[in-house]
Amino acid sequence: MTSTIPRTAPAADSLRDTATLTGRVLRHWKRRPVSIVLGLLFPVLMVLMFGYLFGGAMAVPDGDYMDFLIPGMLAMTMLFGLEAMVVNVTTDTARGVTERFRVMPVTTTAILAGRSIADVLNGVVGFAVMVATGLLVGWRPEGGPVAALAALGLLLWLRFAFTWVGIYLGFLLKTPDAAVAVQVLVWPVGFLSSAFVAPGTMPGWIGAVATWNPLSATATAVRELFANPTWNAHDWATEHSITLALIWPAVLTLIFLPLAARQYRALGD
What we know:
Number of helices: 12
Membrane topology: Multi-pass membrane protein
Oligomer: single chain
Order of helices and strands: HHHHHHHHHHHH
InterPro entries: ABC2_TM (IPR013525), ABC2_TM_bact-type (IPR047817), ABC_2_transport (IPR000412), Nod_factor_ABC_transporter (IPR051784)
Strand content: under 5%
Pfam families: ABC2_membrane
Radius of gyration: 19 Å
Protein name: Transport permease protein
Number of strands: 0
Helix content: over 70%
Transmembrane segments: 34-56, 68-90, 120-140, 146-171, 178-198, 242-261
């Protein structure tokens, strides 16, 4: 059993530790710019592929498919951070970095929050890249600047929740090789949503699952805030998408943040 040094730090010390560890993650990104750039450009490739290769077959009521797609891809960009988080956590664990943190006088909160905050900052960059891509392909947000800020807030709220899912799975899987299994989780969650097509076009129970997908709630809410086209549905989830976009990340955070902290403390036991 690995021992750790207990520490009850004042709030100021905890904030300083969090900022230090956030900076550590950001400095590591500077050392591998190729992987960061590829991660940012992958959603752009998906926009081009779905928008121009498949977009002609997509029928969107009262609008253009690209206007429907971009908000969905903004939500998908928040989900893609989950895979990167799992890989980063498992890599640090395999290299012994996490174990060194465990024996240092640093709070668990600071260690985990540092990762989460850095990933949310990455989400801001991903949002900017996707918005720029959307504007270049003809997408236009029509809801005004206040609505755009609200949309950004909902997207980053979802990203924040997904960071805790990623941290928990990273500590659970422990090795980078095992992290590949997370793709089995990410892609079904992404495609079984309203990011690309309306749930109403799917078979009954699949459409119901897609409608209540947390990703669908945020994608639909963002479309509403940007005044972009959505689908003609009158179910509760669609009509209260902003409410759901607030609730789902809160539920995910309440579940996975404590699980991530417990899994971290259990490493080496």
